[in-house]
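Budget justification note: compute hours in this period were largely spent on complex prediction jobs such as the one shown. Inputs:
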Amino acid sequence: MRTALAVIPVEGMPQIHPDDVIAELVTLSARAQGTPLLDDDCLVVTQKIVSKAEGRLVALDPTDMAARRALVDSESTRVLRRRGELIISETHHGFVCANAGVDLSNVDDGQAALLPVEPDRSAKRIRDGVRAHAGVEVAVVVSDTFGRAWRHGLTDVAIGVSGLAAVVDLRGEHDALGRELQVTEVAVADEVASAAELVMGKAAGVPVAIVRGLDTAWRREGSARELVRSPSEDLFR
Amino acid sequence: MRTALAVIPVEGMPQIHPDDVIAELVTLSARAQGTPLLDDDCLVVTQKIVSKAEGRLVALDPTDMAARRALVDSESTRVLRRRGELIISETHHGFVCANAGVDLSNVDDGQAALLPVEPDRSAKRIRDGVRAHAGVEVAVVVSDTFGRAWRHGLTDVAIGVSGLAAVVDLRGEHDALGRELQVTEVAVADEVASAAELVMGKAAGVPVAIVRGLDTAWRREGSARELVRSPSEDLFR
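Corresponding output:
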């Protein structure tokens, strides 16, 4: 049998505050629940706790719509659409999402969480920290919950990556009938984030999951920039 | 520990031909590899083999670009964008994807595979068949590989669903700090399809995976229509 994938929620994480060391807390929580981190695990860590640990919190009265709009504008490089209070915009990372990723849920009242400044670097910091604290070599995906064009419902995607290919290029390999495959650049980091979301549940307060058993051929430095479709190639911007 | 999710590829499936009974072949293959199907498993079955089993194959000379365009047009209700040979269009199901889902890979030369006419019904047929052949109650997702606006790389999504909520509405539940969640309609069927893709690999010829351990609260009839954002609500159509 081909190796199966296991997606394991990491429970028991404390509330995160600025300067908390996520790598250490994940190492301890995973060990405490009997699933210590192993080499080649991929940790999926939600943006929310990364932003908190990095102090990416700003004061915001959630009822002050003008202040909210100003904050979203300041986090955006380009606004694609506005409808009522909803703004779809591009962040300085190149991600297109609602409200430039500014988030009011799961933070203290009167605060908003902004996206990490450099989510790849956030992922690398956690990866380096796990190596230091647990002595194992993992990959890390920082995930966030985005809407999509055309399809209803949100899915989790990767906004930061370290130690994993974000996009795997299968062009030139062959399909099961021996012919060359056509379009086969698979966004594995986004799929990993989505798989992790299935065990996290927004309401359950589980901010980290372990994805175990990914193809080790996908191990490389990686970057979420691979997932940004350049505006010139994008038919919908 | 919260229950982990397992994503298990089903190997040893034969090439599929019209009128093959997928439910029976999956039941046998899963049993042969030592992972018999269990109640509450979710089977993810790629569109390609569903289309083949349903005889959704048409003759097409892949070098005849005019014939290819005509075929894509006939499968589309609306064309959103054209660039060179690439057409982004809406299918009669309401899905927006490249070339209306018409696919030339993994089918015999001179043939193209069209999307199932009613993928929800295809999923239900497999689910009913598994109940008959294996005596277990599973959910079924029919998956396909779609591109996205704004983000590079393809991900697998659900085009047919039976026995599983496609979108789970968490509005009104509370976040970890006790406040009501804001936007929390999660496209779990798409996330399940993406998780399955991670063990399938386009080149590996594994057309079915078992996703085991999903929240049983998500069991209901379900429909991929939940995933179709109506054009009137869609800011990008």
